[in-house]
Amino acid sequence: MSLSITSLANIAIDLQSGISHQDRFARLIRTLRQLLGGDATALLRYEARQFRPLAIDGLAQDVLGRRFDLDAHPRLEAIARAGDVVRFPADSELPDPYDGLIPDHTDLKVHACLGLPLFADQNLIGALTVDGMDPLQFDHFSDEELRLISVLAAGALNNALLMEQLENQTPAATSAPISTKSNSAEMVGLSAGMLQLKKEIEIVAGSDLNVLITGETGVGKELVARAIHSGSARAANPLVYLNCAALPESVAESELFGHVKGAFTGAIHHRTGKFEMADNGTLFLDEIGELPLTLQAKLLRVLQYGDIQRVGDDSSQRVNVRVLAATNRDLKQHVLAGAFRADLFHRLSVFPLHVPPLRERGDDITLLAGFFCEQSRVKMGLKQVALSDAARNLLRRYDWPGNIRELEHALYRATVLARSGKPDGEIWLQPQHFQLADSEPKSVSQPAVSAPLVDNLRTATDDFQRQIIISTLASCAGNWAACARQLQLDVANLHRLAKRLGVK
What we know:
By secondary structure, the protein is α/β, with parallel strands linked by helices. 41% of the residues lie in helices and 15% in strands. The chain has helices at 5-16, 21-36, 74-82, 143-168, 192-205, 221-230, 249-257, 274-277, 293-305, 331-336, 342-348, 364-380, 389-397, 403-419, 457-475, 480-487, 491-501, and strands at residues 40-47, 50-57, 68-69, 86-88, 112-120, 123-132, 211-214, 239-243, 282-286, 307-308, 317-318, 322-327, 351-354, 384-387, 426-429.
């Protein structure tokens, strides 16, 4: 059955109705799935050689959290390059990004696949994908009918992107995903708490106010700081990071303000401090609650007057630095206890931001699990990493005392364990791959190591060593040097062993 003028008109009317962009997109793909008879549809946004799902229908919920790099997904790259409707043959050898991600069809390969690239002024802005289990599912729809759908969808997506730029009042170049050292490229989440946080970030980013970011360990405070800097007028200038908790008091002043040659024993050359490095940019002071009281007074002076003085230097110099600070402590209580200066607290917390813990973010756990599954798939060169329903429910029930950092490590560790003995590279994560307390969601996970059934001693030994390294590395927050110390190994030997076992 072909698409009627009425059905196309209804799509156009739906896309212009006065509802939010998210609801509009959800209605679009739901309607398309009904009209085309597919098993799954998705609307994807394109930027920086990556497709990001905006709305899905008929796909596992964690797909919304996945980010599909073109280099890792040849089908999506073909859609991006095509410039027109793409019909993949049922026997196409290109892997489908949705294999195993259509509920009730997890054991079957997607057979019919349509790709509709979406353009605005000849620039690719997104794509519609429609998939089905029947190889002949879309044969009776003409390319012309499908082009009309892509034009309607492209107009709606382009309007949404323009509105987003106007609301944020930032150039399109600054709204790209935020990168971090762990390659977690953005703040993934659609929960009420995260949407409110993102809104507050947009509000404060364009100002020059100091910001105090609070939240438990592992919630992503550094990511918030990067988002604020990226959305500010200082984005083209440096964002300098300093962990106050890892700062010995003897060198803390030199780290912040620098020193001149001969200022103290060991000062054999001039040193530039973090404030100088961040001049005209942003300085992010992580774990600010650990800063010694003596330095708190000097930091306050810089915030008040903009002057810094290198250790051993009689002259001062002026800097223009925006300070973002983060802590997992209750600084108000520290002020009352006399461990933190009240005047510095008020100077830093001009605009406080609180990052909610993962256990309060509901479905965001599923989205983040999908995000990390895709990252693990790419890092390990696997065809697919998918969550079973039981594993997804386990992750939702767990309390996540280590928050997003713990979830990331848990997904990576589970993928390594599930990969053992799977040469085809299609991984299904089951509850037994996660070292979490299933029956006691409020408890902290314990690194219980269980040796799987194996055919020989070498395999058993490798599996045991692999699990020990992964668990220890997670407890050391990914720090290989600390992991080596805990395991009483030379760090170079640990790296070699980890590579041989597939951990690195």
